[in-house]
Structures are given as C-alpha cells and as structure tokens.
Design brief:
mainly alpha; single chain; 46% helix
C-alpha cells in the first residue's frame, strides 16, 4: 500500500510540475526569439507619408558604399528591435515584408525621420540625413521573401 501511495504522490507531483510548465509557456508572453505574427495594420504607417515625402528619391541609390554603411547603422540602431536579420521580433515588425520592400525610399525615409512614437518606433531625425538614406538603402537591399506566385516553375 505504501508503494502505491508513493507512486501516486510522485505522479501527482509530476502532473503539477507539467501543468505549471505548460501554463508558463502559454502565459501570453512571447518568447524573445519568437517571430511576431504578420499584421498588415502595422505597416499602414507607411501609407501616411505625404506624397511629397513618398516621391523623394534616395540620393545614395547608386552609392556602392551605402548598403554596407546602412548595415552598420542598422546593427547599431535597429537590430535590437527588428532583429539582426530584420525579420522582426516581439518588439518590432519585420522589414522583409512586401509592404516595406515595395514602399518608396521616400516613404521609408519619412518613417525613419518621424518615427511612430505610439508604436514605440523612435524618431531618428537627429541621425544625419545621409545616414538615414543609408539605412533606407540597406533596408531596400534586403529584398524580403519572394512573392508566393513568383517562384520559377521547374522544367521537366
């Protein structure tokens, strides 16, 4: 009888530990490494850029060093929230999505300059203008994932 009681006590302890572990995993808090769910509303801020801002062209578009300089700036200022690979994190959205990659350089520059304070995107207007354009050049160089319908069809 004592063996059955001991086995029952161990089983109950194991069950309680399993319940606690399961609750902690599903507590609603995202793990730091979790990729955020895609939400197109997040990217609506890009559409708020005024037409004049959207139509601006990147003066560093053809600068061969702009992407590398932008990558360094991204690592210093952006990766903490958007992740090193720009795929997003619980803190900030992915920059690889279609909405960002098809946005005009001017719209991205406008967003960097003005931020989205209520969404915790900092205002980067104190960053010199050439550096903001380097960031835009880097972000656009990431290209993002290929659209689902654009993958080449293998030939038989």
């Amino acid at each position: 009888m004592k063996a059955v009681a001991a086995a029952l006590a161990v089983s109950i302890s194991f069950l309680a530990a399993s319940v606690v572990l399961a609750q902690s995993r599903s507590s609603g808090k995202s793990a730091v490494s979790a990729t955020p769910k895609y939400d197109p509303v997040i990217y609506a801020e890009l559409q708020k850029a005024p037409e004049k801002a959207r139509n601006r062209t990147n003066p560093l578009q053809n600068d061969p060093d702009a992407v590398a300089a932008g990558a360094i700036l991204f690592a210093q200022h952006c990766a903490e929230c958007h992740s090193n690979s720009a795929e997003g994190s619980p803190k900030a959205p992915s920059l690889l999505v279609r909405e960002v990659q098809t946005a005009t350089p001017g719209a991205l520059f406008w967003l960097l300059t003005n931020g989205v304070v209520r969404k915790k995107m900092p205002v980067w207007s104190k960053l010199p203008e050439p550096q903001r354009w380097q960031l835009v050049r880097y972000i656009k160089s990431l290209g993002g994932p290929a659209p689902a319908g654009d993958s080449p069809v293998p030939k038989p």
